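Anyone up for a design puzzle?
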């Protein structure tokens, strides 16, 4: 198994880059508003969310797999984002598994709690969760447009994306702080995430 997160810097470095892209997109939009820049903000926001979820899952996989009995087989496979398949000759291979982002976030929050003891507050069922779903539909609409109108993002939709950015940045901060706290209380074992920056 290839683990993409072996030390804390492997987690934090890409997250900082994702956030910097969103910040740059927002600053460009604030400097001179255009529909193009609104679409760039939407794409950067969801690149940050999806990329951060991936790296947090890799961190959870790395640490969880180093603790005997911590992960169930199904959790291990879902953290890897793969599905095992069987060839007609009896050989096993894996396929990349697509997990809808909403489900992936809920799964990540549960796994972070199980492995690191971190309580991630997604706010499912609240206004911010609804705004996240709205922002996701905006990103999907501009990525797979069915009409010219689908390219347009309204002022209120821009505000929704900004709210979602703040919400997700708080989730990320809580997750990383929880991981750092866990590492401080548990000396790293082989395969676990080490506190090296």
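Challenge accepted. My sequence:
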């Amino acid at each position: 198994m290839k683990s993409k997160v072996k030390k804390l810097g492997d987690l934090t470095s890409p997250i900082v880059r994702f956030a910097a892209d969103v910040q740059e997109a927002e600053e460009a939009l604030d400097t001179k508003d255009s529909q193009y820049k609104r679409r760039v903000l939407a794409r950067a926001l969801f690149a940050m969310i999806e990329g951060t979820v991936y790296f947090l899952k890799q961190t959870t996989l790395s640490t969880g797999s180093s603790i005997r009995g911590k992960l169930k087989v199904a959790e291990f496979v879902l953290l890897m984002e793969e599905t095992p398949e069987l060839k007609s000759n009896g050989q096993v291979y894996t396929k990349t598994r697509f997990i809808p982002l909403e489900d992936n976030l809920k799964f990540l929050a549960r796994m972070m709690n199980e492995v690191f003891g971190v309580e991630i507050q997604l706010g499912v069922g609240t206004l911010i969760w609804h705004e996240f779903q709205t922002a996701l539909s905006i990103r999907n609409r501009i990525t797979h447009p069915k009409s010219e109108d689908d390219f347009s993002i309204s002022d209120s939709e821009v505000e929704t994306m900004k709210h979602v950015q703040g919400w997700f940045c708080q989730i990320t901060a809580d997750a990383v702080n929880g991981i750092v706290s866990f590492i401080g209380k548990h000396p790293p074992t082989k395969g676990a995430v080490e506190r090296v920056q």
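A detail worth pointing out: The chain has one domain: 8-185.
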